[in-house]
Amino acid sequence: MQFPNIDPIAIQLGPVAIHWYALAYVVGILLGYYYVNWLDGRQPKRFFTDRAKDDLIFYAVLGVLLGGRIGYILFYNFPFYIEHPAAILRIWQGGMSFHGGLLGVLVAYWLFARKYQLRWMHIMDYLAAAAPIGLFLGRIANFVNGELYGRVTDSPWGVVFPNGGPLPRHASQLYEAGLEGLVLFVLLFVVCACTRALHYVGLVGGLFLAGYGLSRFTIEFFREPDAQLGFLAFGATMGQLLCLPMIALGLYLVLTAKRRPHVRAH
Fold it and tell me: Considering only CA atoms, which of 56, 60, 57, 87 is closest in space to residue 72?
């Protein structure tokens, strides 16, 4: 099928263009914020203080944007950005790394935890439950941009992307939106809403790491590797190699969750 002709600019206000890609980040962070508050409100005692809640969005933006951009530059296209440093600021053109964003969020909320004297790993449990919302919207935005498309396929649902040549390709962005976004969100929602998972520090975060890692590792078999990197060790892609430690750490956190002291709420 032919790629739908979707304008990557959602709103044009004179010289100011607001892209779907940017809106995905804004809406994803806002929805994640309200979802974290909803989950916290369901607990016997709230974990986040009122002062801490006021800063949740600021640290999310700081970690996601800085970490995601720096991660993409370092992991995927370092030589290009060394030669074209001005391109580093063109976030609206795409070029964000999930793994870099994850590291950025870990660092940002470590600072957040120190400031408010909260348990860092338990903060990450709440954020992990909300993260698939942003992943879903971000992958939809990747599809709108016609970027990060999949490998050539003869399947009837293959899409001819504007920048992907004349042959149909897997719409791997939509596969990721479904698996890393929707399916993972439902799984974590059921675990958080129907069990005492948030009582065990690191359990939800571990489920997210393992679930995302396995999902992304699988979808990388359908996704076209970055042209500047291609296939790496043992025919794996950069995305797959970065997912292996995520899966290992996630399984460790899940298996050891009951050994850690339970959370103390305010």
Answer: 87
Angstrom distances, CA of residue 242 to CA of 36, 65, 184, 209: 27, 19, 19, 11
Which long-range contacts (C-beta less than 8 Å, at least 24 apart) are formed by 6-12?
6/144, 8/144, 8/145
Which token pair is 188? 């974590």
CA distance 28 to 22: 10
pLDDT (tens digit, 9 = 90+) per residue, 52-109?
Answer: 988 999 999 999 888 888 888 887 778 888 887 877 777 656 677 878 888 999 999 9
What are phi and psi for residue 160, nearest 5 degrees?
Answer: -90, 105
| Cβ-contact 75, 100 below 8 angstroms | yes
How much is the CA Rg of the chain, to the nearest whole Å?
Answer: 19
- Closest by CA to 180, choosing from 150, 139, 223, is 139
